[in-house]
């Protein structure tokens, strides 16, 4: 952690890059997670069409939770970027 603090103190551009990478990774992770949820929900609906409503509701809930975590990651990245500005 001391190495990261040294880099951030010595080069503000590096800290902006780190913030951008963090926000980007959060967005990529959310995209992968929501894609996996949607794919598995489609598979489950194809196997049990009578459970379509329950599967859709639970997959929507999980997608919202994944998106919320990604939003926190982007906000933390932006706060880190704005703190160094």
- Secondary-structure element order, N to C: HHH
Overall mean pLDDT stands at 86
Total E-strand runs = 0
- Which blocks of ≥5 consecutive residues have pLDDT under 50? none
Q: Classify the helix fraction into a percent range.
A: over 70%
CATH architecture label name of one domain:
Up-down Bundle
**Percent of residues in beta strands:** under 5%
Shape verdict: rod-shaped
Please state the structural category: mainly alpha
Q: What's this, in brief?
A:
The chain is an all-alpha fold and 85 residues long. Helix content is 92%, strand content 0%.
If you had to describe this structure to a student in words, what would you say it looks like?
The protein starts with a helix and ends with a helix. The protein has a domain at 29-85: F1FO ATP Synthase (Up-down Bundle). It has 3 helices and no strands. The protein has 85 residues and is an all-alpha fold.
Topology:
Elements (H helix, E strand, L loop, with lengths): L1 H9 L1 H36 L4 H33 L1
Considering the chains and any ligands shown, give keywords for the structure.
85 residues, single chain, mainly alpha, F1FO ATP Synthase
